[in-house]
Amino acid sequence: MARMSAPDRDTLGSLLTEARNPASEHLDTLPTLEMLALINAEDAKVAGAVQAELPAIAKAVDAIAERFRRGGRLFYIGAGTSGRLGVLDASECPPTFSVSADLVQGLIAGGDLALRLSSEHSEDSREAGAGDLMAAGFAEGDTLVGIAASGRTPYVLGAMEYAKSLGALTVGLSCVPGSFVAKAADIAITPATGAEVLMGSTRMKAGTATKLVLNMLSTGVMVRTGATFGNLMVNMRPTNAKLVDRAERIIAVAVGCDAGTAARLLAESGNDVKVAIVMGKLGVGREVAVERLAKAGGILADALAANNS
Fold this sequence. Notes:
With 309 residues, this protein is of the alpha/beta class.
């Protein structure tokens, strides 16, 4: 495929995310409370910017979920704040939804060291982006979400170029309408958050918008693929005291039983929340509950349906 055009450094200052915010020009002269109120007022604009992108986010959720059902995986890739937010969202999926760490993966320019120490130069290499994605075993059936607040990061564009060459699905998440990342993607998600309180500090509004979108993508895909029951996280792993307590409360709510019964069901299920709920709701033993869930593809609502027999 044709190589995407390289971002023009001369245009950086013209980006919305790099503009000077007139509301905060005198930030350093404000009393602390007024300074914080100004930051809060700017943050309040983020939700509206994300709301405007809900149709695109919904399209991405449905497309990623469909690929999950066929064995595909989800990859986030970015540099700096964008990369850290992608890695954060990916790392929270296994404990929240009890999925394999391979299912949702986050890659950051400069590798894991860049999660703690800044590695700005790493974002300038297209080849590194493609190479990191290749090394991670990215395949045609997977989805890549390229994250770049400015929409012009070479590392991200190189990864997206490689993903498209395989025929994989690409989603571009940026905060600049019409950006290189948006144009390169099959699905563009572009919350236009505008100028930052601190000029160019995209860890602020752009970072907040990115976190909101990533929350929606991963949560939405997990809901669509059966990791929840209503708004209950029934795929969770009760691996410590806090999570055991949460699991028992989820079971109690889903089954409509008391705390003692919920604790017993969890223990008898082998610490599997879904199995415990099927046992409690249908009055069956562990083996039958496991069988019903397997027949339903792990989707609890289907396992509880009357025709699953």
